[in-house]
């Protein structure tokens, strides 16, 4: 997949795509339906037009972290779905100032030279989100690109949305989130060096930041792990603690993953951790011995769940 962050001067080979437009936070079933409709337009490579940073980070800077995935995790998921061109438009003052007509003409028509655009029914664009999906269809007729409006997707009678997925994760329901996502929710990032307490307890962990991401319910999870880079790249099972580690004072929330039956160094590796099942809340134990007993129980239960 080719990622285009500077779209000012595109190579002719990178123009003429059929694209889906949106933030694609989580790349859930609704997003995937829009992508499938975009891909059904034959004769053009499949692309996605998205925005970075997420518009909400600029428009509501004091809001709590809300993203389901960072830009890198999103690009990995889109590549798996067959996207060839990812156009990451910088969401800045210049872009926000464009009227709906200017955005359709200057960005979609002239700068990207798109052949076809697919959006969801609730799509809004342009200054003050004034443009609707129907407006885009009319602009497409004028500026030389086709437009398809995709219907919203429902599962179990509920509309699939990033908001509902955040709610499921906040309630410790990763399986419900996975039903709406069409895949397990993953936290992706670089393994950082921590305090190495887990190693001293017999449970070495790979530590990852969750800064900027919507925090799922704090606690212990059965997880599946993909090590994406480095000499230990591969797929593993494990158990992870997400939260502030109350046994050891006040700490910045992070994800600490113990990889089962692993010997090696993961520092600096890119890792993707899928939350499979919530096991229990975070706790502060009376002693390290009691903590180790609980970690043994957590690991046994996670192994049992992941073996199913």
Descriptive keywords:
31% helix, 2 domains, Rossmann fold, 6-stranded parallel beta sheet, 6-stranded antiparallel beta sheet, 308 residues, alpha/beta
Summarize the structure.
The chain has 308 residues and is an alpha/beta fold. The chain is built from ten helices and 16 strands.
Describe the structure.
The structure is a single chain. The protein has 2 domains: 2-155, Rossmann fold (3-Layer(aba) Sandwich); 184-307, Elongation Factor Tu (Ef-tu), domain 3. The protein has 10 helices and 16 strands. The protein has helices at 29-39, 55-59, 71-80, 93-96, 100-111, 133-143, 162-170, 174-181, 197-200, 288-307, and strands at residues 2-4, 18-21, 46-52, 85-90, 116-120, 124-125, 131-132, 146-150, 154-155, 158-159, 186-190, 206-209, 219-227, 234-243, 254-259, 270-280. α5 (100-111) crosses α6 (133-143) and α7 (162-170) runs antiparallel to α8 (174-181). The chain is elongated, with a radius of gyration of 22 Å. The model has no long low-confidence stretch (mean pLDDT 94).
